[in-house]
UniProtKB/TrEMBL annotation:
Keyword check for Membrane: yes
Organism from which the protein derives: Pseudomonas neustonica
All residue ranges annotated as the HPP transmembrane region domain in the record: 12-163
Highest taxon of source: Bacteria
Protein name: HPP family protein
Signal peptide location: none
Alphabetized InterPro entries for the sequence: HPP, TM_HPP
Length: 167
């Protein structure tokens, strides 16, 4: 909630220490789990947008954009769009723009908006990824791992309940 001072808006209050520690520990454990499992399984499970996903999962866990449906669904939808558009139109500037726009629209239609997933088509096109197995690893597996870590971290402490909804 914004505080008002003589008719002007100011920054929202700083989160309490527990929420700050949740963000710190959640980010460390979420990315560590994915990175460790990547090394253990010798399968790529980590991608850059997962860092931004951690911000939502651990710093704003009650936001609709940080719910499992949004995290997993948003990443899968946006990655699928990126692969399809890359296969159909390549990776030029217009194709990248169309892929991001289509990904946003489909996430909205599916009620699975997750802002970090908006980067997935760009990651896919810039890396030249055209194979559908990318949807399983790293996209699906990595996003599920983060949701599982969030399920533990975001429920530590009395009266905490995450997620607000699953699907």
């Amino acid at each position: 909630m914004l505080h008002k001072i003589k008719g002007t808006s100011v920054c929202p209050p700083r989160p309490d220490l527990m929420q700050i520690l949740t963000g710190l520990v959640g980010g460390i454990l979420g990315i560590s789990a994915i990175a460790w499992l990547t090394q253990l399984a010798e399968v790529p499970l980590l991608m850059a947008p997962f860092g931004a996903t951690c911000v939502l999962l651990f710093a704003a866990p009650n936001a609709p954009l940080a719910q499992p449906r949004n995290v997993i669904g948003g990443h899968c939808i946006a990655a699928l769009v990126g692969i399809v558009i890359f296969q159909l139109a390549g990776s030029g500037p217009l194709a990248m723009a169309i892929a991001v726009g289509v990904a946003i629209a489909l996430m909205q239609v599916c009620r699975a908006v997750h802002p970090p997933a908006g980067a997935n088509p760009l990651v896919i096109m810039l890396a030249g990824i055209h194979e559908y197995h990318f949807l399983l690893t790293p996209v699906l597996a990595g996003s599920v791992i983060l949701v599982l870590v969030a399920l533990v971290i975001n429920n530590v402490g009395a009266g905490k309940r995450w997620p607000n909804y699953w699907f």
